[in-house]
UniProtKB/TrEMBL annotation:
The keyword Ligase does not apply. This is Membrane protein. Keywords: Membrane, Transmembrane, Transmembrane helix. It comes from Ornithinibacillus bavariensis. The keyword Magnesium does not apply.
Length: 429
């Protein structure tokens, strides 16, 4: 059943991309819209999709998937974007996209099991140390609202948000240590990062809603009504893939972002759900804006389906509720457009939230990658990651900054095995 879920997700997502209905890569949606309007040829669209997504699949999605043995959704959906848009959009192209997308999904889950078994035969089994890549991510994630506030409003407001969030986190630690919260005889523990995150998000949206529109407002709902109608017309497809992804998340097969993935790898499903919810709320302005403006949706919608998968106790309930949630998202697009028009600060926060998360993940993953690499090969690991990062910067960043830590840690693991086989290095204890 687990394999079937992943195969179906791969097949449906590839069809959605092939029919220009939905793509996962946020940056691709405006490009697909240009193709729909006739200003961009299919070949150019396919090449653009490959250029924008291939590096992220290899350098970002796959390393995270390997480090936690849970599929990061980027691994599958960035790949199906490429598959769907490379295959011609015609009567035979769509079935081919479905088959290739399904085989790609199967390859991911089958290959993952094979990779895990392969590590047991290596002189230096570096699978467990790879888990260190995501350790700083979980803790630092709570800082992204403060960074978004600083980017959009001012550094002073960003510092204030950061300080208050940090204080709330430490208060939560103190409350847990003293055991103040109890239900009957049972002590209740607060999630300290989750509490800090909630406070930061309150600050962010409070500042955003205070920002008033300048000049005449734009009626987004009316301006892009035809494109919103196009998305609504395909709502059944979104319900299908939304239900499948919610079900797969419930089975702990996949995660929607590196933060919740690492929390799941640690067995913290509730915390992963809280992190996924914060990310989803923060990304609604970005996903909604690009969808309304382009008429091209995301196969994961506002990413609330991951929250459903993590909190609903039964896989089939998760499938049903996931489908209903993405249905409501699509049906509410006009109302969301009017809300974003009324509060331009909230609309603008989407891009700042994305930038804040990217900057934070770049730093956290570099630290995590360095720690993982040094656990695999003490001393050499730090040397390699530092050199790898700096050389990548000088070369013009052929590997995105976010991927340097995970890719570097994997490279150190491979090098360590080669050195042990050559007798140049002892097996790390």
């Amino acid at each position: 059943m687990e394999t079937l879920f992943v195969v179906l997700i791969g097949a449906v997502a590839a069809v959605l991309a092939n029919r220009n209905i939905a793509v996962f890569n946020d940056g691709l949606r405006p490009v697909v819209s240009e193709h729909i309007e006739g200003s961009l040829k299919r070949r150019e669209l396919a090449l653009t999709a490959f250029a924008m997504s291939f590096g992220l699949v290899i350098g970002f999605g796959i390393p995270f998937t390997l480090s936690a043995s849970i599929i990061l959704i980027h691994s599958i959906l960035l790949g199906t974007d490429i598959i769907g848009l490379l295959v011609p959009k015609n009567k035979w192209g769509t079935p081919v996209a479905a088959v290739v997308g399904g085989v790609y999904g199967w390859g991911l889950i089958a290959g993952l099991e094979g990779f895990v078994k392969l590590f047991d035969y290596l002189p230096v089994n570096f699978l467990e140390p790879l888990g260190e890549v995501g350790t700083p991510v979980v803790v630092t994630f709570m800082a992204f609202p403060a960074l978004a506030v600083a980017l959009q409003f001012s550094i002073k407001k960003g510092i204030l948000t950061f300080v208050v969030a940090a204080i709330v986190r430490q208060l939560a630690v103190w409350v847990n240590t003293e055991g103040f919260l109890k239900i009957g005889e049972n002590t209740v523990s607060l999630n300290q990062e989750g509490m800090a995150l909630i406070v930061g998000m309150i600050f962010l949206f409070a500042y955003a809603m205070k920002e008033k529109p300048e000049g005449a407002s734009i009626d987004l709902a009316s301006l892009f009504s035809e494109k919103v109608s196009r998305i609504k017309k395909n709502v059944v497809f979104f319900m299908v893939i939304g239900g499948l992804i919610a079900g797969a998340t419930n089975l702990l097969l996949m995660a929607g972002d590196p933060i919740s993935l690492n929390l799941l790898a640690e067995g913290k499903q509730t915390d992963a759900g809280i992190a996924a919810a914060a990310r989803a709320i923060g990304f609604i302005p970005l996903v909604a804006s690009t969808a309304i403006a382009t008429g091209v949706y995301s196969p994961v919608g506002f990413t609330l389906i991951f929250v459903v998968g993590l909190f609903v106790p039964n896989v089939w309930f998760a499938v049903i509720i996931g489908a209903l949630v993405i249905f409501l998202e699509v049906m509410l697009l006009n109302y969301i457009a009017r809300f974003l028009d009324k509060y331009p600060g909230v609309r603008n926060s989407g891009e700042n939230i994305r930038s804040a998360m990217t900057k934070l993940l770049e730093v956290a993953l570099l630290i995590g990658g360095a720690n993982a690499a040094n656990t695999i090969a003490p001393g050499f690991g730090f040397f390699f990651i530092a050199g790898f990062y700096l050389l990548n910067e000088i070369a013009g960043r052929p590997i995105v900054r976010m991927a340097v830590g995970p890719v570097g840690a994997i490279a150190v693991g491979i090098i360590a095995n080669i050195l042990v086989l050559l007798g140049i290095m002892d097996i790390p204890q």
